[in-house]
UniProtKB/TrEMBL annotation:
Database matches in InterPro entries: Chaperonin_GroES (IPR020818), Chaperonin_GroES_sf (IPR037124), GroES-like_sf (IPR011032)
Keywords, in A-Z order: Chaperone
SUBUNIT field: Heptamer of 7 subunits arranged in a ring.
Family stated for the protein in its record: Belongs to the GroES chaperonin family.
UniProt cross-references to SMART domains, sorted A to Z: Cpn10
The protein's name in its UniProt record: 10 kDa chaperonin
Record organism: Propioniferax innocua
GO molecular-function terms, A-Z: ATP binding; metal ion binding; protein folding chaperone; protein-folding chaperone binding; unfolded protein binding
Domain of life: Bacteria
Organism lineage string: Bacteria, Bacillati, Actinomycetota, Actinomycetes, Propionibacteriales
Amino acid sequence: MADPDEGGLPIRMLHDRVLVDLENDAGERRSGGGILIPATVTMGRRLAWAEVVSIGSSVRVVKVGDRVLFDPEDRAEVELHSRSYVLLRERDIHAVAAERLSEGHTGLYL
């Protein structure tokens, strides 16, 4: 178990559970074309990005520090040290952000 005094979380995840820190998307954002989208606009079913802060012993694909994509409708929230986190199962994660390609590689498999 992590020591809360050293900045760790006082929790140990079990089985296939993943604890993530939700990225703050509450403010205004811009579209790809540069159009300003106000925070009051409601979007349809939109997936959310979050950073993995803790994983259970049965988690196989995701590791701490990964940026993951999930459906915010299928979540459970928990508060630790006055901060909100989201608890997911590994199977509820749709994607893991890939590392950027290093300079000089095209990313094409020829």
